[in-house]
């Protein structure tokens, strides 16, 4: 699944409505993930995890570190030690 990007956000829209998104702030080389949302109609399909992978790819491409703040991002990175090198 491909996501749209705008500064501070990866998201997916359908009919002008945001159906999935992850938001973050970036300061001093650190992305702080502060919100993850997936519409009820899309839950259970691994979309939130795919959003996190988009964040990982963006962080790696832009030489950024990640600070998981929202509960979903914290759980995602706790289950995936392969990304520990990206975390602050």
Furnish the topology, listing elements before pairings.
Blueprint (H helix, E strand, L loop, with lengths): L3 E3 L2 E6 L2 E11 L2 E9 L8 H15 L3 E4 L2 H8 L10
Parallel strand pairs: 4-5
Antiparallel strand pairs: 1-2, 2-3, 3-4
Question: What are the main properties of this structure?
Answer:
88 residues; 2 helices; Aminopeptidase; 26% helix
Task: Explain what you see.
This protein is an alpha+beta fold and 88 residues long. It has helices at residues 47-61, 71-78, and strands spanning 4-6, 9-14, 17-27, 30-38, 65-68. It has a five-stranded mixed beta sheet. Strand 3 (17-27) and strand 4 (30-38) form a beta hairpin. The longest helix has 15 residues, at 47-61. It is globular, with a radius of gyration of 12 Å.
CATH architecture level-2 label: 3-Layer(aba) Sandwich
Low-confidence sequence ranges: none
CATH fold node name: Aminopeptidase
Distance between the termini: 27 Å
In what order do the strands lie side by side in the largest sheet? Answer: 1-2-3-4-5
Query: What is the overall shape?
Result: globular
Number of strands: 5
Quote the average pLDDT.
97
CATH H-level name... which superfamily?
A: Gcn5-related N-acetyltransferase (GNAT)
- Share in β-strands: 35-45%
CATH class: Alpha Beta
Number of helices: 2
Name the structural class. alpha+beta
Helix content: 25-40%
**SSE order, as H and E?**
EEEEHEH
The major beta sheet can be summarized as: 5 strands, mixed
- Rg over CA atoms: 12 Å
